[in-house]
Amino acid sequence: MIVVAITGASGVIYGIRLLEVLKELKIKNSLVISDAAKTVIKSETDWEIEDIIKLADSYYEFDDLTASINSGSFKFDSLVIVPCSMKTLSSIANGYGDNTITRVADVSLKQRRPTVIVPRETPLRTAHIRNMLTLSQEGAIILPAMPGFYSEHDSVDDQINFIVGKILDSLNIENNLFKRWE
After folding, report:
1. Which residue, among 66, 62, 81, has the nearest Cα to 4 in the 3D structure?
2. Closest CA to 109 of 143, 80, 138
3. What residues form the annotated binding site for dimethylallyl phosphate?
4. N or C, where is the chain less crowded by C-beta within 10 Å?
């Protein structure tokens, strides 16, 4: 089971598309959406929050520190935070588990489970880079939302699929979401 967390950074469509693909591939997932992400979803997409939640097998509230995914004894295979705001990144890097997303990230890292973080910010401050380095040193995969143009994108959807395909690649999940280098 993959835990998917969507935070309040621009690029929420990456998280939504990941949920669609996981559903298509019949891979169980759990979902957490931050309060800020709900605001961004409304401004960047035509999606209704309820419809996004329906893509997941289970859903946890952002402020539920008693959620089962916040326990190291709860079994999940990996965590993807997509997109990951710099606030969330900083909280995780500094061990500040004050909500469901930062707490499940703490659990994922301390249990050495694959943790993919997709930061969505530009330009980056030195503090952002340090926080990414800290998480990388702890085993997280830092996967910035930077499409590769060698796959001949024809549309924004192609660029979204490229990033989602790279996320799946990081988790060793077979996919054909983008044209691979030949």
Report:
1. 81
2. 138
3. 150, 166
4. C
pLDDT of res. 151: 65
In CATH, the number for domain 2-171 is: 3.40.50.1950
- State the average pLDDT over residues 76-85: 98
Ramachandran quadrant class, 167 (left: phi over 0; alpha: psi -120 to 50; beta: rest) = alpha
Residue list for the binding site for FMN:
8-10, 34, 85-88, 120
For the chain, give every domain's residue range.
Answer: 2-171
Which of 151, 69, 130, 75 minimizes the C-alpha distance to 102?
69
The alpha carbon of residue 71 and the mean position of all alpha carbons in its chain are separated, in whole angstroms, by 19
Can you say which residues are annotated as belonging to the binding site? 8-10, 34, 85-88, 120, 150, 166
